[in-house]
Amino acid sequence: MQISRTKKTVGVIVPTLDNIFFSNLARHVEQILREKEMGALVCSSENNASREKALIRELSDRGTDGLICISGLNHFPKDTAPNNFPIVWVDRKPTSERAIPWVANDDKAAMENATEYLLKKGCRHILLLPGFLAEPRKSPRVIGYQAALVSNGFEVDPQYILDRKGEQPTEIETEKMVRDLLRKGVPVDGIITSSDRSAFGAMAGLRSVGLYVPEDVKLISFDNSPYSAMATPSITALDRKPELLAAKACENLIQMMNGETVPLESIVDVTIVERVSTM
Question: Quick count: other Cβ atoms within 10 Å of Cβ 100?
């Protein structure tokens, strides 16, 4: 890992580069920094907590000027990096003894909106696939999903929340989970997935038991990648605006590198892009 001594270099850690949201966010960060004549060193933690901590240590020890990180950690140990090493969390925020700025969407509110959107469409058996975390914890998406059901007079049934174990590619693992649930006779008329790849797996799982989107099941995905618009049917998606997340993260980090104070929390709104999958 070579660090340039002629210009400032920022480390960028993402959980995986085969997730289009993470890779897209890293691409925007790299572009913004390049325009400011700064370098970006992009690394994947491979959804592994130990690897993520090792990467943070290596990037700080080897002289990068700061770090933008989409973390999978529950807790950020204080000995992982020096207190004067500038860090900005994006999307996910571990607990920490030190105050570290965070740039994110309000995933709880976004999931409440998505769940209520499906309820208004007449869905009464909504399946949630909240995604995989390197260190499992209760996701804000799960909290938002549960809050929307309760506020609309529905009970929360744990069998409708399917957590991936991260043992297989997203779409394959999701397809199996959805297929296995449906084969048990559990009724499903709406699905919310954590990513477009998960949405493709969910649609494959539905087809394997003779169900289709949107005729039998309505589907919403996080991310709003180009693939959600190109899919058949096109997929209603939650647009998380990775370009705005990247811009705010870079702005905050550069200010920190210059010794300035930045807000501890910066929130980027999420919007629902309606397509055929919920018609």
Answer: 19
Give the list of residues 6+ apart from residue 231 with CB closer than 8 angstroms, or none: 196, 199, 200, 203, 277
- How many angstroms separate the CA atoms of 116 and 190, rounded? 11
Query: For residue 161, what is the DSSP state?
Result: B
How long, in residues, is the chain? 279
Query: Residue 25 and residue 190: Cα distance in Å, rounded?
Result: 28
269: CB partners within 8 A, 6+ apart:
105, 106, 241
Q: Is 198:174 a contact under the CB 8 Å cutoff?
A: yes
Across-strand partners of 265? 102
pLDDT for res 251: 98
Cα–Cα nearest to 54, from 46, 224, 117, 92: 46
The pLDDT, as a whole number, for residue 182 is 97
Span between the terminal Cα atoms of the chain, in Å = 49
Cα separation, 274 vs 96, in Å, equals 38
Q: pLDDT value at position 2?
A: 52
Torsion of the alpha carbons at 272, 275, 276 and 279, rounded to the nearest 10 = 50
Confidence of residue 131 (pLDDT cuts 50, 70, 90): confident
pLDDT for 5 equals 58
Residue 4 has pLDDT above 60, yes or no: no
CA distance 248 to 242: 10
